């Protein structure tokens, strides 16, 4: 009975070779994810550098403080001497430029 039970289709062999192959698949997927994340981060860094050169300093600062530093619109407006609505417009403008620049870099 035990031999018949262990011989059923769909049961793993339990040998170390099978276990090692499973670990290799996981390692490859993990490496692939890490490489994709590194590529995305490098793409974002490059796009941010290019966009920063194309916008006014105050526009970039509004984006940075609001989107990256996590300050509220009111805090950013107060620090930069802007209207709250203008802070959100600046963030939106920079985000749009970043999306466009990332698409351009990724295509090339």
Folded structure, characterized:
The protein has 108 residues and is mainly alpha-helical. Helix content is 81%, strand content 0%. It has 5 helices and no strands. The chain has helices at 2-6, 16-54, 57-68, 73-80, 84-107. Helix 2 packs across helix 5 and helix 3 (57-68) crosses helix 5 (84-107). The longest helix is centred in the N-terminal third of the chain and has 39 residues, at 16-54.
Summarize the structure.
81% of the residues lie in helices and 0% in strands. It is mostly helical.
Number of strands: 0
Beta-sheet strand percentage?
Answer: under 5%
Mean pLDDT: 86
N-to-C SSE string, H for helix and E for strand = HHHHH
Which tags fit this structure?
mainly alpha; 108 residues
